[in-house]
What does this fold into?
Amino acid sequence: MQPLLGTSWLGQAWRYLPTCGSTNDEAAAWAVAGAPHGAVVVADQQTRGRGRQGRLWVSDSADNLYFSTVLRPPLVPVEVPPLTLAAGVAVAEAMTRFEVTPSLKWPNDLLLDGKKLAGILTEMSAADPRGVVSHVVLGIGVNLNAEAWPSELGDIATSLRLARGGRPVDRVLFAAALCERLEHWYQTFISDGPSAVATGWRRFATFFGRRVRAGTLEGIAESLDDDGALVLRLDDGRAHRITSGEVHA
Ligand code: BTN
It folds into this structure.
């Protein structure tokens, strides 16, 4: 993959695995063993692919991308969440290079016509909640070339290939584009802060104005604050900021 990489550090160290439990676990173990900032793990197949909130991420096909990177940001844990938004913008921009413009649903689902194209799972390790994190693993699953899913996912998943009228996407080229965009958005976040990431994120947001649920709250998804929080307009007119968890349409 290296000859295709236009990055300074992201993906310069990488491991390819035909199969593994989860690339996030492999990356975390490598981080503990000293993986450099920007090390990447890619697998053809995961036997225990994880999604957010304990969900399963179906990962049995080498048609798709299962990608994790080790990051060592100079941040304390509460400063980390916008990194996931930055990754969402990076994945969205990588997709535009393959002629697909996805939408971002807060915090980090990549959708096309309401169906999932990609998801991001961020996991961090910190010895002391007030100290700088030891590492962050950013796990990204992209439905690149799958054309069929188990029946329970058929209505909720799609792929870049389907979005391109059946034209496949080269996995190595996509991974290289992703590394390049991720490096750019990581650096933007670290140097310019979360408001620069929020500006990038809003360009792909299509769900503002829609009615959503967040836990027991319901309201209209109104905007994204500069710190990455989602602003809900509740029925009683109050604005409520959501900083963690998920929203459902
Ligand atoms: C989600 O939308 O729920 C997040 C899905 C994240 C899936 C990726 S695939 C690569 C990495 N390894 C995992 O086990 N999960 C992430």
Q: What stands out?
A: The chain has a mean pLDDT of 94. The longest helix spans residues 171-192.
